[in-house]
Amino acid sequence: MKRKGINIMLLVVAVMTLGLLVYRTRQRPVVQISHEAWEYY
Fold first, then answer.
1. Distance separating alpha carbons of residues 34 and 21, to the nearest angstrom
2. pTM for this structure?
3. Distance of CA 37 to CAs 10, 21, 28, Å?
4. Cα–Cα distances in Å, from 30 out to 11, 15, 37?
5. How far apart, in whole angstroms, are the C-alpha atoms of residue 10 and residue 40?
6. What is the largest CA-CA distance in the chain?
7. How far is CA 26 from CA 2, 19, 21, 33, in A?
8. Which segments cross the bilayer (predicted)?
9. How many CB atoms lie within 10 A of CB 25?
10. How far apart are CA 3 and CA 1, in angstroms?
11. Where are the domains positioned within the chain?
12. Looking at 1-41, which runs of residues are DSSP E strands?
């Protein structure tokens, strides 16, 4: 039961991160974000 709760928490965090990325992509040009991601990694 505890393990399932952790999985749900991870899923929520992943969805929130994805939502934030989509929001930021709409705010700024995709090319700029791709460039930032490339420099980050």
1. 11
2. 0.48
3. 22, 11, 13
4. 25, 20, 10
5. 23
6. 43
7. 37, 11, 9, 10
8. 6-23
9. 13
10. 5
11. 2-40
12. none
Residue in the block written with tokens 């974000």: 33
- For residue 33, the tally of other CB atoms under 10 A from its CB is 14
Place of tokens 């965090």: 13
- What is residue 9's predicted lDDT score, i.e. its pLDDT? 92
**Tokens of residue 33, six digits:** 């974000």
The H-assigned helical ranges of the chain are 2-27, 30-40
Tokens in use for 6? 């952790």
Q: Which two tokens stand for residue 40?
A: 């980050």
